[in-house]
Every structure is written in structure tokens, then in C-alpha cells.
Design brief:
42% of the residues lie in helices and 15% in strands. It is α/β, with parallel strands linked by helices. An eight-stranded parallel beta sheet has the order 2-1-5-10-9-6-7-8, with helices on both faces. Strands 3-4 form a two-stranded antiparallel sheet. The longest helix has 20 residues, at 118-137. The N and C termini lie far apart (39 Å). The model is unreliable at 1-18 (pLDDT under 50). The structure holds zinc ion. Zinc ion (ZN) is lined by residues 191-193, 276, 278, 319-320.
Length: 345
């Protein structure tokens, strides 16, 4: 786990471009993630993870030999504090304790809910992303998918919002830098909403590049194309606001073009995908027209185009997606892409 050893290995991979060992992909879960109780009328409800697990189970004949399943460790306070303020971490813990005491959910804003189980769930969600990164960086798996819930990309250093308590992908990115000596991290965020929290956390940081494609005229209202970073981080934020109803083929063309532009500016040693499935057609909180097979193609593109510097190290982390059946189909397609399998069959 030394920084020197890891960068030397990165160098070898860059030169050889060869396949690494380990399982084709890993699926990282934690039972606490399903216990975060927002209520059944909430779009980010407890049925989301069972829908994903059921879809994966139905595809088991194909996935069985390709997917290493692993339970996450809870994110430690040290890991959370690499991204979040002590006040924020304490606020989440205190809100869950209050929910337990009062026997009722605590609302941190109009739609961000904390239930008694949410303190453990929030640490588990960040922990899923961290464990997924550990498996990939440690060579146990070539790629990984973290079934994190609650989602993370709207959470800022000091603020829960948009269903998100801790910023799971940001915590994992900082963990990879601190514990594995990864120098440069690319985060590709294709959730239909702008990942304002992730952007905010890394806005002045040239070591983490955030590429976000999202609906322009939509929650949370940030993510304009001219938001490109601040100070030393100018140029390592790239926003691509898109119109409602953009045809999938056009989206895919723009995605490829913007990924190329990002990679012309930045050579990542590790790649995260903030994988929101509310970009699929029919999502009640969305407005784009992608299909699961599009996400398969986009995942393969990210793996292949970042391979020269990242050696295939791609970690997908669950964000949004609010039609359970579509969410399940989407995750299966991304998992198949991570494992090197075709989208179906
Ligand atoms: Zn979203």
C-alpha cells in the first residue's frame, strides 16, 4: 500500500497496457444501506436496492463467474473528515439519534431524510465506495460497482441535500489518494442532476477532475458550462448541461466528445463513475432518453479511453434512479460492462 510501490505499478501498467489480474468486477454492498428509511412515498425509497439485487439475481447465469461480491466496511470518521466538516458528521449522527428517540424521521431539508438507521447507512454508503476502490487498487478486482445508499453527489463538505448525506464518491476519491497514493482521480457523473456537492468539494483541487453531464434547467440549478473550477483547480471541472428530451444517440456523441476533451486535459490514475440511473428514459425525476444499453456503451468507453493512464481501474458508485425496474436493468447493464460482458444474452 505504499505510495511509491503503487505509482511504480501504475507506470508498468501504462507501458504494458495489459489486463490486470483479479475478478472481472466486484459488487460491493452493505445491509445497512437498505435500512435507511425515507418512507415509501419518497422517490429514494427502500425498494431501490432490492430491485437491483433482484435484477442481478435474474442475470446470475451470466454474472456468477464474473462478479466478486463483497460486504463493505463502514467508513471511519477519519475517512469522512477528509471530505466533510466535523460539524456535518456530528449533525448526521445527531439527527439519526433524534429520529430514534422521537420515533419519527428527521428532515434536513424538504426532501433529505434521516431515519434511525441512517447514521449506519450513510457510513455504509461511503464505505461501499471505499471498499470498491480498495478491491480495484489492491488487485482483487479489475473494476467494481458500489451499491451505495443513500446517494452522495449532492452532499457538500458541510451540507446534506438532495437525498444525500455524505458524498460517497468524494470520500472514496480522497481515500484512494490518502491510502493508496493515487495522484489524479477522474469522476464522471452521468446522473441526470448536476453533482453540485462533488463539484463544490473539488472545485479548487487540480488533483480531482469532475466531468458532469446533466439536464441544464433542473435541480439543483448549478452546473453551467462556464463553471470550470477556481484557483489551482481552474480547468479540472467540466460541466455539460443538456436539454430535456435529447435523443440518446446525440447524448452518446456528446458524452464521447466531452470525455475526450477531459482526457486531453487530465490523465487519471483512477476513475469513478457517479452512476445515476435517473438519466434513463421514463424516470420521474429525469428528462433524458437513455436506455440501459447506452449506459453499457458509456461504461465501456470510460474503461477503454482511460485505460492508458488508469489501467482499467474504474469504480462505479450508485447515485439516483427512481423507477425500480429500470434501475435494476441499468445496474445489470453497467455491471456487465464492468465485467467485460455484452449488454445482454
Ligand atoms: Zn439524480
Amino acid at each position: 500500500m505504499s505510495a511509491d510501490g503503487e505509482s511504480a505499478e501504475n507506470g508498468d501498467l501504462t507501458r504494458s497496457g495489459g489486463e490486470r489480474g483479479g475478478a472481472p468486477t466486484a459488487l460491493v454492498l452493505h445491509p445497512a444501506c437498505a435500512l435507511h428509511d425515507t418512507g415509501w412515498k419518497h422517490p429514494e425509497h427502500q425498494g431501490r436496492l432490492p430491485a437491483i439485487v433482484n435484477a442481478i439475481y435474474r442475470d446470475m447465469p451470466a454474472l456468477h463467474d464474473a462478479v466478486l461480491q463483497r460486504e463493505a466496511e463502514l467508513a471511519s470518521t477519519t475517512a469522512l473528515l477528509r471530505v466533510h466538516t466535523p460539524e456535518h458528521v456530528e449533525r448526521i449522527e445527531a439527527a439519526a439519534a433524534r429520529a430514534e428517540r422521537e420515533g419519527a424521521a428527521v428532515f434536513l431539508d424538504g426532501d433529505t431524510v434521516v431515519s434511525p438507521a441512517s447514521w449506519e447507512a450513510a457510513r455504509a454508503a461511503a464505505g461501499c465506495a471505499m471498499t470498491a476502490a480498495d478491491l480495484v487498487l489492491g488487485g482483487e478486482a479489475r473494476t467494481a460497482f458500489a451499491l451505495s445508499r443513500p446517494p452522495g453527489h449532492h452532499a457538500t463538505a458541510d451540507h446534506a441535500m438532495g437525498f444525500c448525506l455524505f458524498n460517497n464518491v468524494a470520500v472514496a476519491a480522497r481515500h484512494a489518494q490518502a491510502e493508496w497514493g493515487v495522484e489524479r482521480v477522474l469522476i464522471v457523473d452521468w446522473d441526470v442532476h448536476h453533482g453540485n456537492g462533488t463539484q463544490d468539494i473539488f472545485y479548487g483541487d487540480p488533483s480531482v477532475y469532475v466531468l458532469s453531464l446533466h439536464l441544464g434547467d433542473h435541480y439543483p440549478g448549478t452546473g453551467a458550462a462556464d463553471e470550470r473550477g477556481a484557483g489551482a483547480g481552474i480547468g479540472t471541472t467540466r460541466n455539460v448541461p443538456l436539454p430535456h428530451g435529447l435523443p440518446a444517440a446525440e447524448y452518446r456523441r456528446i458524452f464521447a466528445q466531452q470525455l475526450e476533451a477531459a482526457l486531453a486535459e487530465f490523465e487519471p490514475g483512477l476513475v469513478f463513475i457517479s452512476a445515476g440511473f435517473d438519466c434513463l428514459a421514463g424516470d420521474p425525476l429525469g428528462g433524458l432518453l437513455l436506455e440501459p444499453a447506452d449506459l453499457h456503451a458509456m461504461t465501456r468507453l470510460v474503461i477503454e479511453r482511460t485505460r492508458p493512464s488508469a489501467g482499467g481501474r474504474v469504480v462505479a458508485v450508485l447515485e439516483g434512479g427512481y423507477v425500480p425496474a429500470r434501475l435494476g436493468a441499468g445496474v445489470v447493464c453497467v455491471l456487465r460492462a464492468l465485467a467485460g460482458l455484452p449488454p445482454e444474452g
